[in-house]
Amino acid sequence: MNRVPANCGLSIQQKPTTLDSVPIPKIDGPRTSHLLNSGLVILQPSEKALDEVVNFLNTSPTIAASRFADQDVIAGVFHGRWRPLPWWANALKPGRAVHQNVWEDSEVRLIHFM
């Protein structure tokens, strides 16, 4: 129900979008603005961060309802503490129609096929 373009983290990106210009969604923003897509993710957690992940897995009431286990866990553990990539670093075909405010075919660097 809350998966609408206005609630997407990509909706706050603007042209030109560079690696260091991507805004971080507000901590109290819509849940969907804090979802991440781990189609492209690089992790090298510290021991403390790994402990946080394990604790979340063992204690979070959201685990049983997670639709995308890796993404939901990472988003839950690191809520408000991760940096989104620009839209062009994980370009999904629906984004072309949904996020016309930022999408430029010539800017796409990585395509996420679903």
Shape: globular
Mean pLDDT rating = 85
N/C terminus separation:
21 Å
- Beta-strand segment tally: 2
Description of the molecule:
The longest helix is centred in the middle third of the chain and has 13 residues, at 47-59. The relative contact order is 0.21. Helix 3 links the parallel strand 1 (91-92) and strand 2 (111-112). The protein has helices spanning 47-59, 69-77, 93-98; strands at residues 91-92, 111-112. With 114 residues, it is mainly alpha-helical. It is globular. The mean pLDDT is 85. Helix 1 crosses helix 2. Helices cover 25% and strands 4% of the residues. It has a two-stranded parallel sheet with strand order 1-2.
Provide the fold topology.
Layout: H1 47-59, H2 69-77, E1 91-92, H3 93-98, E2 111-112
Parallel strand pairs: 1-2
Helix pairs in contact: 1-2
Q: What's the gist of this structure?
A:
By secondary structure, the chain is mainly α. It has helices at 47-59, 69-77, 93-98; strands spanning 91-92, 111-112.
Descriptors:
single chain, about 25% helix, mainly alpha, two-stranded parallel sheet
